[in-house]
Amino acid sequence: MHVAVDCLIFGFDDNELKILLFKRRVRPAVGKWSLIGSFVQLDEDVDDAAGRVLAEITGLKDVFLEQLGCYGQANRDPGFRCISLAYFSLIRITEYDRELVQRHGASWHSVSKIPELVFDHGQMVEDALKKIRIEARHRPIGFELLREKFTVPQLQSLYEEIYARPLDPRNFRKKILSFGILNKLDEKDMTTSRRGAFLYEFNRRKYVQLSQTGFDFEIK
Amino acid sequence: MHVAVDCLIFGFDDNELKILLFKRRVRPAVGKWSLIGSFVQLDEDVDDAAGRVLAEITGLKDVFLEQLGCYGQANRDPGFRCISLAYFSLIRITEYDRELVQRHGASWHSVSKIPELVFDHGQMVEDALKKIRIEARHRPIGFELLREKFTVPQLQSLYEEIYARPLDPRNFRKKILSFGILNKLDEKDMTTSRRGAFLYEFNRRKYVQLSQTGFDFEIK
DNA sequence: TTGATAAATGTAAAAATTACACTTAAAAAA
DNA sequence: TTTTTTAAGTGTAATTTTTACATTTATCAA
User: Fold this and answer.
1) A165 touches strand D (CB under 7 A)
2) Which of A119, A184, A215, B86 could serve as a FRET partner for A101 with CA atoms 20 to 30 Å apart?
3) Does the structure show a pLDDT above 90 at A195?
4) How many angstroms separate the CA of A177 from the C1' of D14?
5) Which nucleotides in chain D lie closer than 7 A to a protein CB?
6) What is the structure's pLDDT at B186?
């Protein structure tokens, strides 16, 4: 039986959640939109295969990459029997290797306007979005999508995009800062307002430390 | 590459969460404890393969069975390259086919006293328990483990077992009944007290209906 | 100096959660 | 028949969390 991995690569840009899609170059379904994937090598961990695909496309290593699930319907690929292990990745859209992406014929698509995808890839995207929405609520995965330094309004608009609903700026700021896992910097981002907005960093060490003592990250 | 499914079958009995384990009869690691599994047939959906294994062992169909994940380290099985799709099932421990289970050399083990398991099966159990703990908090999966009719104290002790901490009976009852997804019956269970405890049923239809209107099941 | 604009801030009301102790129903024993 | 035993069942007040909501402020550009 053939075993493949498929990667769902998400980014956040222009206040929109986006996914990297590919014009398919191999048969069947040449020219159709799809996710990017690869067969798992016989001597390769499945997780490593996903990491390899991600690195080949974006040039990125050591970024958020998590298993979504196995897609294993007998007839999912009309060519031959092949199961796919889907992985989803959250990357900083500013940091990937544009040249590599271009060379692979990939492009970013807003998750609110996904074209038709081959096989069960549409289902994978739907499932991943559902999972991201659930996980973002209980784990600080949002930070994976922002630059190292970000403002509170940027973080808010990311959550607004993920949850697909508006949040109150006072309540949001109060809540997110109350966790004590953001470091306020002495710098401002002056690109979106005259007044400028203070930049913050995610304090991963503090978060891990708090998690171990039963702390519960939750943004409603 | 070989593709297998492994089933983690959980039940609740004697106020303990239990898992069904097997004495391995095939090489390698004959005689060691393991999960039950099977290779996925070439013309078979992966989900169906898991359902087949579950039915073969317990005689049960249409019970809770969900994908846990893919375990795909290259060296996980010392024999040959084989990835495993792990599935976890929650069953009513009163309803399975004892004769079938016995014939397969299976036995129930409290999750607090799991013997050493072959390969990465110990990791699978650990991951499944973690997932059950998280999911039980946000979805009414606990009912899958109880009889059709159950008492509030039974439900409470199930949650106490899953969360591994005591819950206040007044607050628990108030919370669980406030959802309006339990039907109180005119019957009592007289087995655990002189006074008896009223029996309830889970109202699945009502739950589905509420879920669709943004209702959030959560038990802290 | 003024105007424009997004960032930043506080408080009161409502809702949810927590902590906590006594009464009751029914069977068994006296 | 009465008493004892025991788990089931119940209410309230204090605390915490969540929600709703409007004005001021810092900075750049005109």
Assistant:
1) no
2) A119
3) yes
4) 26
5) 5-12, 18-22, 25-29
6) 97
User: What residue ranges of chain B are covered by domains with CATH 3.90.79.10?
Assistant: 2-135
Residue A26: the pLDDT is 84
Per the document, the length of chain B is 220
Q: What is the DSSP letter of A40?
A: P
What pLDDT is recorded for position A96? 94
In this complex, the residue of B1, B42, B45 whose CB is nearest that of residue A73 is B45
Beta-carbon separation of A43 and B73 below 8 A:
no
Q: Where are the beta strands (DSSP E) in chain A?
A: 2-13, 16-23, 33-34, 36-39, 64-71, 82-90, 106-110, 149-151, 182-189, 197-202
| Domain(s) of CATH 1.10.10.10: residues in chain A | 141-211
Long-range contacts of B199-208 (CB under 8 A, 24+ apart): B199/B149, B199/B150, B199/B151, B200/B149, B200/B150, B200/B151, B200/B152, B200/B155, B201/B148, B201/B149, B202/B140, B202/B143, B206/B180, B206/B181, B207/B140, B207/B179, B207/B181
A26 has a chain B CB within 8 A of its CB? no
- pLDDT score at A43: 97
CA to C1' distance (Å), from B220 to D8: 22
Give B182-204 pLDDT, tens digit per residue: 999 999 999 999 999 999 999 99
The residue whose CA lies nearest the C1' of nucleotide C17 is B171
Name the B residues in 44-73 with CB < 8 Å from any A CB.
44-47, 67, 69-70, 72-73
CATH architecture of the domain formed by B2-135: Alpha-Beta Complex (3.90)
CA-closest candidate to residue A105, choices A32, A39, A24: A24
CATH fold group of domain A141-211: Arc Repressor Mutant, subunit A (1.10.10)
Give pLDDT, residue B26.
Answer: 84
Q: Tokens standing for B122?
A: 């110990």
Distance of alpha carbon B40 from alpha carbon B58, whole angstroms: 19
Reported pTM: 0.95
Does residue A194 lie within 7 Å of nucleic acid chain C, judged by its CB?
yes
